[in-house]
């Protein structure tokens, strides 16, 4: 098994939580992993990305080679475009939230952003904020996106659930319940759409 | 022991703790910050009384570590690459005094300048100081080599440099620990004069350092940190340093390279391995995630020997971080490409947070400066440097930490009156105080804005050495109390703040305006922490 994943978003949107959840789940399944993160300057409202590599074999590079990513998981639509060059043209899936994070003056019209995504052969676009709101709080939008992506991860769904229980335990029972619901709602949406 | 999932930085921290350090000394700086933060948060470190609070700057950190080593205990000192410039005097001389307790100097480089003003290569400093340098290629090696570094330091009685780059610092992988070692007991140097670098002693010490060079190279040959991995195709030979090795093997099925490879993770580079490679192949490719140091040595000035390919002949781009594709292109291998990046994509540069106190400080300063010609604001390094961008476009320089006040002195001496310096609280105690003293002694006609957001914001909100001390320091250095003005940078105090700036800009002497309001990120974290403690207390009570 081998999965190379690009995670993208804007500083503060919680892509590292997604990464940590997938990471925890893959460790439960005995996989090896490498995860390159962005810290520092760009966390100030700039674009952030993470390279997450899972494999049953030893992993060499911390960076995914261009054109080799099996997935892009993005919590922001414009940010997903930034890594199109990383995606495997023959097999790669893009899963992204449709909710723009508009903190720049020249944010392009949302439609033209989504149109670019919809040209790809394999994608899921999801109104993650609405889905999260329906489950109780917009805060869980990132986990909704993870839920949608989980369909293509080749990890056991139970492992992801367990990972969420572990990760959010410190924040209290309500947060665990909310995020488990968000995961499920995201997953069900992707199942319907594909 | 169980595997831990650690950042390269954290692997180094855990390695140092397990190597029995008694202290870590550091000033924050991306990408090195997480090393010290990890130790600060580690239960094991608390139980073992490992000191770990932040130093005022890299030089004070380095010197404190030298002191701990003098007393016979192991010390780790961490900084980002440019921090080593600040610590350079102490660092170079620590190679002359030698080390007593193990002393490891970690410098984290930032090729591609993700969060830095240059991409200098710390391996040059290792060579400059003539000490062994280690360059791990992955997280496990980072752990192992940190431990090895302390052994090496004590074996030869010299400081050892550990060099990493951003990618390893901020990438996570599984790391297996080995049995922790107890801390050293206090034990002063057997030669009581070793650390007194008077010329007569320094000469003796320097000769002793020179005498160890052969042993350093021999150690590099035998340690197992440098490997000769043979290959059947002798048309190319490859030297891969540190993390470049990963990008190399990533390009081959099952990570098996058909060419002979020398993997380098310890310097000085053993000539024997390099010679063996050069003798057996037609061309040598050098892959270094940094400056072309080995490549330049191999080529020599005249480049008349074996054909050497790398950054200097354009085989690899001259600047910037390596990656698998760059290595593939350099070696003429096939590489894949993804989809084209759509043209509608726009950049999303970092910016000041909504509600940041710096924005209000600069709005007031900009307005007060309207009546003067442009180009008079010398800034420093911190979040506030982002005020260079739209919409504020408030500053005209950012060179190195502490340069704001001193550049304003020079510019005002040249006739640019008034000149303005803009500096953060952490940067002020890092290296602004001595500049302020110069300004006072020079009676420079400058206005200094100290933006006291009571944190080290840019690097993630570490405790600032200046916390609660700025006013007293400014007074103590000799600024006239009449010209020390404290303002609260807010939208609603804008008018009065503009007036304060206007008044002080007119004054032809040193004035200091302290703009004090807590960083909103630090405040949010503080509030969360308070809420968490309250929750815990309630749980205990109920
Ligand atoms: C010599 C050196 N050490 C460390 C850094 C990393 N660094 C950049 S800005 C900064 C701190 C800034 O803190 P402060 O001046 O209080 O400003 P703030 O970011 O809080 O606005 C640090 C540690 C650096 N660029 N150069």
What does the largest sheet of chain B look like? 6 strands, mixed
CATH architecture assignment of chain A: 3-Layer(aba) Sandwich
Mean pLDDT of chain A: 95
Mean residue pLDDT of chain B = 97
Low-confidence stretches of chain A: none
Main sheet characteristics of chain A: 6 strands, mixed
Provide an overview of this structure.
The complex is a heterodimer of chains A (194) and B (542). With 194 residues, chain A is an alpha/beta fold. Chain A has one domain: Pyruvate-ferredoxin oxidoreductase, PFOR, domain III (Pyruvate-ferredoxin Oxidoreductase, domain 3). Chain A contains 7 helices and 6 strands. A 6-stranded mixed β-sheet of chain A has the order 2-3-1-4-5-6, with helices on both faces. Chain B is α/β, with parallel strands linked by helices and 542 residues long. Helix content of chain B is 41%, strand content 16%. Chain B is built from 22 helices and 18 strands. Chain B has a 6-stranded mixed β-sheet, sandwiched between helices. A 5-stranded mixed β-sheet of chain B has the order 8-10-9-12-13, sandwiched between helices. Chain B has a 5-stranded parallel β-sheet with strand order 14-15-16-18-17, sandwiched between helices. Chain B starts with a strand and ends with a helix. The relative contact order of chain B is 0.08. Chains A and B meet through strand 2, helix 2 and helix 3 of A and strand 7, helix 12 and helix 15 of B. The complex binds thiamine diphosphate (TPP).
List keywords for this structure.
heterodimer, A: 194 residues, alpha/beta, Pyruvate-ferredoxin Oxidoreductase, domain 3, six-stranded mixed beta sheet, 7 helices, 40% helix, globular, B: 542 residues, Rossmann fold, 3 domains, five-stranded mixed beta sheet, 18 strands, 41% helix, 16% strand, binds thiamine diphosphate
């Amino acid at each position: 098994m081998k999965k190379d994943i690009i995670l993208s978003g804007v500083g503060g949107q919680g892509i590292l939580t997604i990464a940590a959840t997938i990471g925890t789940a893959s460790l439960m399944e005995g996989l090896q992993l490498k995860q390159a993160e962005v810290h520092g300057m760009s966390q100030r409202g700039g674009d952030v990305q993470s390279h997450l590599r899972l494999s049953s074999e030893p992993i060499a590079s911390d960076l995914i080679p261009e054109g080799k990513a099996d997935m892009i998981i993005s919590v922001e639509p414009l940010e997903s475009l930034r890594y199109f060059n990383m995606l495997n043209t023959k097999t790669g899936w893009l899963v992204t939230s449709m909710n723009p994070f508009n903190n720049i003056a020249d944010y392009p019209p949302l439609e033209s952003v989504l149109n670019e995504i919809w040209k790809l052969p394999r994608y899921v676009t999801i109104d993650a904020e609405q889905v999260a709101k329906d489950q109780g709080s917009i805060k869980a939008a990132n986990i909704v996106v993870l839920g949608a992506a989980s369909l293509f991860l080749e990890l056991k769904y139970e492992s992801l659930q367990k990972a969420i229980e572990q990760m959010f335990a410190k924040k209290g029972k309500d947060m665990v319940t909310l995020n488990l619901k968000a995961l499920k709602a995201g997953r069900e949406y992707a199942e319907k759409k594909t | 022991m169980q595997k831990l999932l650690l950042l390269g930085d954290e692997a180094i921290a855990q390695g140092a703790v397990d190597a029995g350090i008694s202290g870590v000394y550091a000033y924050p700086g991306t990408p090195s910050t997480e090393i010290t933060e990890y130790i600060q948060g580690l239960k094991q470190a608390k139980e073992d009384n490992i000191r770990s609070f932040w130093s005022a700057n890299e030089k004070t950190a380095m010197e404190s570590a030298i002191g701990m080593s003098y007393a016979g205990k192991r010390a780790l000192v961490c900084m980002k690459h440019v921090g080593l410039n600040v610590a350079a005097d102490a660092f170079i001389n620590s190679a002359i005094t030698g080390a007593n307790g193990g002393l490891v100097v970690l410098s984290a480089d930032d090729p591609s300048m993700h969060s830095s003003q240059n991409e200098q290569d710390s391996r040059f400093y290792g060579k400059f100081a003539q000490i062994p340098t280690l360059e791990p290629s992955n997280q496990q090696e980072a752990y192992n080599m940190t431990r090895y570094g302390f052994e090496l330091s004590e074996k030869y009685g010299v400081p050892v440099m550990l060099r990493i780059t951003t990618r390893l610092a901020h990438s996570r992988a599984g790391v297996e620990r080995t049995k922790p070692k107890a801390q050293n007991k206090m034990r002063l140097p057997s030669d009581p004069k070793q650390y007194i670098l008077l010329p007569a002693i320094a000469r003796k010490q320097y000769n002793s350092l020179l005498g160890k060079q052969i042993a350093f190279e021999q150690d590099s040959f035998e340690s197992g940190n440098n490997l000769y991995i043979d290959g059947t195709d002798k048309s190319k030979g490859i030297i891969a340093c540190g993390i470049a090795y990963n990008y190399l093997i990533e390009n081959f099925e099952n990570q098996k390279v058909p060419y002979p490879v020398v993997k380098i993770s310890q310097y000085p580079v053993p000539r024997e391995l390099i010679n063996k490679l050069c003798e057996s192949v037609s061309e040598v490719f050098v892959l270094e995630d940094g400056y072309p140091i080995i490549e330049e040595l191999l080529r020599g000035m005249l480049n008349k020997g074996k054909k050497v390919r790398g950054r200097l002949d354009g085989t690899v781009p001259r600047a910037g971080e390596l990656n698998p594709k760059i290595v593939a292109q350099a070696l003429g291998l096939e590489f894949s490409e993804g989809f084209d990046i759509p043209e509608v994509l726009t950049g999303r540069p970092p910016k000041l947070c909504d509600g940041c106190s710096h924005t209000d400080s600069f709005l007031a300063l900009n307005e007060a400066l309207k009546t003067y010609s442009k180009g008079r604001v010398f800034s420093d390094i911190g979040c506030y440097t982002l005020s260079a961008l739209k919409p504020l476009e408030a500053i005209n320089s950012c060179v190195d930490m502490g340069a704001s006040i001193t550049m304003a002195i020079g510019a005002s001496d040249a006739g640019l009156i008034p000149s303005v310096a803009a500096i953060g609280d952490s940067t002020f105690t890092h290296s602004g105080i001595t500049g302020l003293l110069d300004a006072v002694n020079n009676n420079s006609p400058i206005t200094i804005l100290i933006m006291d957001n009571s944190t080290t914001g840019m690097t993630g909100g570490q405790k600032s050495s200046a916390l609660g001390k700025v006013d007293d320091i400014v007074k103590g250095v000799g600024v006239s109390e009449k010209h020390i003005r404290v303002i609260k940078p807010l939208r609603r105090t804008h008018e009065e703040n503009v007036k304060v700036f206007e008044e002080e800009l007119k004054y032809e002497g040193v004035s200091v305006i302290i703009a004090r309001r807590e960083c909103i990120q630090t405040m949010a974290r503080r509030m969360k922490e308070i809420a968490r403690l309250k929750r815990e207390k309630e749980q205990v009570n109920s």
